Amino acid sequence: MRKYWVHTVLIICFFSISCSKDDTTNPVVEKYVPTPLALKIPNLFEQKLIAPVIPTGNPQTLEGVALGKKLFYDTILSGDNTMACANCHAPEKAFTDNSQFSTGIDGNQGTRNSMPLFNLAWNFDERFAWDGKELSLERQALEPVQNPIEMHANWDDVVVKLKSNSDYPELFNKAFGDNTVITKELVSRALAQFERTLISGNSRFDKYLLGEITLTAEELNGFNVFMDEERGDCFHCHGDNNNPLWTDNVFHNNGLDETFTDLGLGAVSGDTNDYGKFKSPSIRNLAYTAPYMHDGRFNTLEEVINHYSEGLKRSETIDPLMKKIDQGGVGLSDQDKSDLKAFLLSLSDPSFLTNPDFIN
Amino acid sequence: MRKTTALLLLFIITLISCSEDEDDKVIVKVQATLNFVHDWDGTPVTAEDMESTDYVTENGDDVNIGPRFRYLISDVTFTNSTGEAIMFDGHNLINVADGINLSYTPEIQLPAGEYKVSFTYGLKTEDNTDGAYADLNSASFGVPPSMGGGYHYMQLDGKYRVNGSPSAGFNYHNIRAVDPNMPDGPPTFPDQPTFINVELGIVSINANTAIEVKMNVAQWFKGPNVWDLSVHNQMLMGNSAAQKLMNENGQNVFSLGAVTQ
Question: Is residue A248 within a helix (H) or strand (E), and if so which, with residue range?
Answer without folding.
Answer: none
